Amino acid sequence: MRGFTARSEPGSQRQDLGHPVLWLVLLFTAGAWGQDVTARDLTVRMFDTDRVGAVTVTPLSGAVTWKACPGCAFQALGRAVTVKSGAAVGVVVLGDVRVETDTRRKASAAGSWRVDSERDGLRVRVTLPSERYVAAVLSGEAAADEPPASLRALAVVVRSYAMTHPGELTDSTKTQVLRLGAVSGAIADAVRETAGETLWVGGRQVPGYFTQSSGGVTEASSVAWGGVAQVWLRSQADPASERAPSQWHAEIGLEELRQALVREGFAVVGPVREIAVVRRTGSGRVGRIRVGGFEMAGPAFRFAMGRELGWNRLRSDLYTVRVVGQSAVFEGKGYGHGVGLSQAGARVMAGEGRDAGAILRFYFPGAAVRVTAQDAGWQTRDGVGWTLVSTAPDGEMVKKGDEAWRRARGLVRVSEAVHPVVRVFPTVALFRGVTGEPGWTLAATRGERIFMQPAGVRAPGLLLHEMLHVLVEARASDGVPLWFREGLVEALAEPGGSMEVGLVKDVEGKLERPGSLAEAQVAHREAGAMVRRLVKGYGVGVVVGWLTSGVPQGRE
Fold first, then answer.
1. Is residue 420 within 8 Å of 467, Cβ to Cβ?
2. Helices (H) and strands (E) in the chain, counts
3. In 413-530, which ranges are E strands?
4. pLDDT in tens, 98-111
5. Where does the Sporulation stage II protein D amidase enhancer LytB N-terminal domain start and stop, copy by copy (predicted)?
6. Which pTM was predicted?
7. Quick one: which of 85, 377, 443, 468 is 20 to 30 A from 351 by CA?
């Protein structure tokens, strides 16, 4: 195998998960890969609640391309372009861009953007990898100080919903709110540590739901939305949410309330003088409510109030109501529909030391957390000075890793403590979804994190190669050229390799941004040969020392 380095390419859909320099090992033998339940691209309808008349698309970095119609050819987008309603028919933009609307909304992301003109204005959609989508939802839904355990639990729920959702995803509360843009370190960690994990019942991947606070008791999905009762989405007492205050109070004028219902299409005739709960659900929520002489479902009433008067008025269906003068007075607790995970309760449980698995087992009884139908989620095994993370930890791989790490440390010594973490993905699709790399790579190393495809564990010398990358990068000082760092790993991993230096131009550039697999292979052979010649002339100890002191002039 050969290794090479590539920085995040402008316009790519890569999510930054750590060190900006990315080491890759190429898969020389082509194989088959495809989509599966662990990772896939998701399309999201953006600015869903707005009536958009115009959008301006501004390229942010790298090679952004676009086409103005389905039959048009793609061309470079070097400056901002504005698309107006009525003129846009299948505008497609590929790359890292900022999209701004005439409703003063904006979003930034690398992905595939599409703008269509429909009857009520422009529709903007973006397609991006599922792991990037999960990070965007966490950015939009999670608290800034969310504990790691509850943040990881939320990541699993968000992913479970998205991977099983049959319709169109949106950036609004119709599905899951998301915020595109920079991702915090805590969110990046939560997404990476739960990569591909979803809820499963038996051999079936099932959706997850979350609410801001259950108010002390969760609601069954079949009661909230109808349909067949689901064992993992049943109503149950939620003591942790009870310990997180969620009381609320609202007063709505009776005439204001009536007009809001009329605008929503409900036949509320005449002045409203009475509001009464007709029936409650098993969790105590309002199942049916009567407004004047008109009766309707409790959730329908709350949705109407939210759409017309704002979602901060009636915060949940767990309330009492009485008429005082010309106003309806509501006293309630909890925020949201109450189905599934309660974010407030999860935070309390995390603060009490419960991990993400325990939180998910409580809120989704009968469901298991897995990456595929055959595993039990991510498992950790410690080696000697390093850690293996896999859905199927292999004792033989731990032995291979111990030997590779011992050999690597004998070749490149560093003064600081370094502890590699090797994550082996069960599918190529998930590897690609997390790293953003093409399927012909076997491994990607960032800082002390090594990401490997399933086939990577069978590649001779791959663990040694990647562990050398960890040590070389840990020891290398600023300014040490890429060809030397990459070539040194090649030379140390395969000391008997070729020393024939060819005529390849711009080895540094082709290592950093290879145009093809063949080009990368040639650049790696060249870099390895260059460093092997240096090792032959000066000795391995001296050449390794140049990682710290820098490559002397004239040796390049």
1. yes
2. 16, 26
3. 421-424, 441-446, 449-452
4. 999 999 999 999 99
5. 120-199
6. 0.88
7. 377
